[in-house]
Amino acid sequence: MRQTLKNELRYQQVAALLCRSLKRNRHLINDRRDDSVAEMTEIEPATAETEETIPAKEAVGGGR
Asked: Which range marks the domain in which residue 27 is found?
């Protein structure tokens, strides 16, 4: 029982530390998210012409 209480306390301490860290670094997280969105919009979307298509029967195993 005592070990369980120690583990629970440790868990709560780690959770509190993570929350504080996230709050402190939220601006960095948001900046990275903004950068990722900007990078995704710069990349051209793949078109159907560049992708190889396989009929459904072949993809499943020859349609047997």
From this structure: 1-41
